[in-house]
Specification:
By secondary structure, the protein is an alpha+beta fold. It is built from seven helices and seven strands. It has a seven-stranded antiparallel beta sheet with strand order 1-4-3-2-7-6-5, sandwiched between helices. Helix 1 runs parallel beside helix 7. The chain is globular.
Length: 198
Amino acid sequence: MRFSPLDPAPRQYTAEVSLIRRSARGPASAPAQTSPEAIEDWLFDGAMRENDMLTLFESLAWRLVAAGLPVDRLTLHVGTLHPQIRGFAWFWSGVDGFCDEVKVGEGVPRTEAYRLSPLRRVIDHGETFRADPRDPDLAARFPVLADLAAQGFSEYAALPLGGDDYYNVLTVATTSARGLAAELEELRRLRKIFALHV
């Protein structure tokens, strides 16, 4: 039996990226209220029993929201050694409530979308990238920032998950007027623990 591909609407993916699965459990995938400390405890306990990255990542995103962190968009990018697959990614947005799992084709590094992406700086050099998408100079250099600015985002950060493996990246973005500055250290700490699951 053949299945039709999933409809990515309301999202758009490039030709080299294909939607595998989508979850829309929403806030029910996390406690109604929590704290960064409780998220840390969960990462060392309950999350260890989760064997599905889509479910785990969606739960992490909603827990960050439930803890009052100004997270409106969260993505995870993981590389593979497969000759035909560059990697996989998970993309959560508080705007539409979806969490997608996508397959990233081997040809992505040769695309203009990748060459003009902040992810390249993290994957290729292990750099942390932070920017205000509303900065016209940066938006001109990085099209994803122009897209985020059009959606009302005020800050974007792409963080390596640690170690010498630059294939794995976590990105976070907010629409909060004050950006992520006050919470970035908290997010960095939780990112290091979450990296153990990845």
